[in-house]
Amino acid sequence: MAPVYSVFISSINEVLTQLGLKELEPLKLEERNTNCCNMPVNAVIGFEGDMKGNVVLGMENEVAGQMVRAMTMGIVNNICDNLGISALGELCNMIAGTASIKLSNIGINTLLTPPTIIIGEDLRIIVSRIKSKTVIMKAECGVMELDIGLWNKPA
């Protein structure tokens, strides 16, 4: 799993720096009993192919707002309006696409589902009941979580 979560961290940082944002700093790695959403803003991306499962990018409102402003060049400030949600979904799609290409480069072929954006306070949504690895990262203006619930597809 180590190469997989390092692929996602590098993909997140690659996309964020293309938008002029600072790289995220990984703070700690946790193992969880479920693949879940528990941040105020979450994007769930499904993976099929050599690895199956879901990846959840969860973030605080301030982090999501900064990303939406960067993605829209400052035009959109509200992450809860349709354009803000669309921008956040596209940003997460760019991150997942970058990760999928990097996984392919190490021999892991994947197909992606479009991101599902989930926004709300005091959330706890269980995406799947498999053990996941969660990387907690520090952003310029808050915290972001990368929750990886992927498993190898049987041959």
Could you describe the 3D structure shown?
It is a single chain. The protein has helices spanning 2-18, 61-71, 82-105, and strands at 25-32, 35-37, 41-49, 51-59, 110-112, 116-119, 125-128, 132-139, 142-152. With 155 residues, the chain is an alpha+beta fold. The protein has a single domain (2-152), classed as CheC-like (Chemotaxis protein chec). The strands form 2 sheets. Strands 1, 3, 4, 5, 6, 8 and 9 form a 7-stranded antiparallel beta sheet that branches. A hairpin with a 1-residue loop joins strand 3 (41-49) and strand 4 (51-59). Helix 1 (2-18) crosses helix 3 (82-105) and helix 2 (61-71) packs across helix 3 (82-105). It starts with a helix and ends with a strand. The mean pLDDT is 90.
Explain the layout of strands and helices.
Layout: H1 2-18, E1 25-32, E2 35-37, E3 41-49, E4 51-59, H2 61-71, H3 82-105, E5 110-112, E6 116-119, E7 125-128, E8 132-139, E9 142-152
Antiparallel strand pairs: 1-8, 2-7, 3-4, 3-5, 3-6, 4-9, 8-9
Could you say which structural class the secondary elements and strand pairing correspond to? alpha+beta
Number of helices: 3
The residue fraction in helices comes out at 25-40%
CATH evolutionary superfamily: CheC-like
CATH level-two architecture: 3-Layer(aba) Sandwich
Spatial shape? globular
* Secondary structure: number of strands: 9
How big a fraction of the residues is strand? 35-45%
Key words describing this protein structure:
single chain, 155 residues, alpha+beta, Chemotaxis protein chec, seven-stranded antiparallel β-sheet, two-stranded antiparallel ribbon, 3 helices, globular
